[in-house]
Amino acid sequence: MTINPGAAEFPHRQIAGQLRERVRRGEWQPGERLPSIPAIAEMFGVAKQTVQRAVDQLRVEGVLITKPGSGTYVRGTRRRLNRLSRGRYGAHRGYHADLAARYRQQLVGVGREAAPPEVTDAFGVRDGTEMLVRRHIVRTDDATVELGASWFRVTDANGTSLERAESFGRPLYQEAEEVLGRRYASATDTITARQPSREEAEILQIRPDTPVLHLLHVAFDETRKPIEVAQATWPGPMTTLTEEYKIPGPGPEPDPDPGLALA
Q: How many other CB atoms are there within 10 angstroms of residue 2's CB atom?
């Protein structure tokens, strides 16, 4: 492994690129410990500080994870999210079996809280309105890959099973449809990128400067009244969003989709 001192790219970025490529080729497997910083510095013939900058870059990207007192390892979790939140409803209004096999959802709290502004805005109520929230995390074998919360109006959920701190053995929306007597008819997904809170960084095991992807999912009934507002937060570099769709054939030019906007 060598670097080119005359290249326009900084040495630590050259090193990061070569380390990343070794991970991509499978020379270092998920969960495998990397050589020490001094050992890598000796391989490249550079100062330890240069290698540390390369490792820091790959940690921010989510390629590596450092365990205090243990070393630096290849991070093994990269979550592929197919069709955004549509996967929660499945091909026949249920979870996809492959997602259930690879990811484990754990309920971590149920209670009433003042809802954040993005949730109150979605429901069309004043800031700080108290709502029922059900919080969960999603895990793989080695890491937490999602922080989630589902919000309901207290007036809708009061006295129903949605207030109980228990899992239902079926998708949450199916439980909500039954106890609220309203069918989920449409939904919108809005995804933004931002810096994590301290708590989010700790739970997701990422650096505080690692960006996260944040989803706001608003589910409506047939009258376009919100039933549920769900939030999901994922470590950005470890998450791939994939959308598969049909491409229309030749024909009359369709009207622009009012739901799409370029900022």
A: 10
Distance CA 66, CA 207 (A): 10
User: Residues 59, 65: contact at Cβ < 8 Å?
Assistant: yes
Answer yes or no: are the C-beta atoms of 187 and 218 closer than 8 Å: yes
pTM summary value: 0.75
pLDDT digits (tens, 9 = 90+) for 73-116: 998 756 666 555 666 776 544 433 444 456 788 999 999 999 99
Phi, psi (5° rounding) for residue 208? Answer: -60, -20
Confidence of residue 241 (pLDDT cuts 50, 70, 90): confident
DSSP string over 53-87: HHHHHHHHHTSEEEETTTEEEE----EEEESGGGG
| H-type alpha helices, 114-196 | 117-123, 154-157, 172-180
What DSSP designation does 201 have? H
